[in-house]
Amino acid sequence: MYNLFGFNIYTKEERRKREKLYRERMFPGGKEEKKAVLEKLRTVLPKEEDEILLYMYIVLRERHLRDGKDYEELLRIQALPVKLSARERQELAKILQESPEPEGFRREEPAEPDLW
User: Fold this and answer.
1) pLDDT exceeds cutoff 80 at 116
2) Nearest-angstrom CA–CA distance, 45 and 113
3) Residue 111 counted as domain residue
4) Which of 57, 102, 110, 112 is the most exposed place for a label (fewest CB within 10 A)?
5) Contact (CB, 8 A) for 74 and 57
């Protein structure tokens, strides 16, 4: 990686490694887990496209892993591309709660904001 005018530039190999690590963080069970999660999401929101369903899942999971917020709370405060009923929110929270934590995952305390 090198920095050019404030932008981080990654080599193809570094980019692949970072993508692999992110996929493992979102779906520790690999492709099988992703497929199972997508099937469950389709039962809750059958009219939505797969890309939208995975987007919502990943956004909520990332916020949970980063901020430590409860999924039900996130479903109340996170802007999503689909308006959810109370039942759909409950079902989605249940699916998210069933997802395993990534192996070796450790939530770090947020750093003090750098104001300068």
Assistant:
1) no
2) 38
3) no
4) 112
5) no
CA distance 33 to 39: 10
Q: From 113, 112, 28, 29, select the one nearest 65 (Cα to Cα).
A: 28
Q: What is the mean pLDDT of the chain?
A: 86
What residues have CB less than 8 Å from 36, skipping those under 6 apart?
A: 29
Contact 35, 61 (CB under 8 A): no
Token code pair at residue 41 = 């999401």
With a cut of 60, say whether residue 115 has pLDDT above it. Answer: no
Q: How many domains does the chain have?
A: 1
Alpha helices (runs of H) in 9-108, residue ranges in sequence order: 12-26, 30-44, 50-67, 71-77, 86-98
pLDDT tens across 17-54, in order? Answer: 999 988 988 998 899 999 999 999 999 999 999 999 99
**Number of C-beta neighbours around residue 114 at 10 A:** 5
Q: Look up the domain containing 15 and give its range.
A: 8-98
Q: Residue 75 domain-assigned?
A: yes
Please tell me the pTM assigned to this model: 0.78
Within-domain flag for 116: no
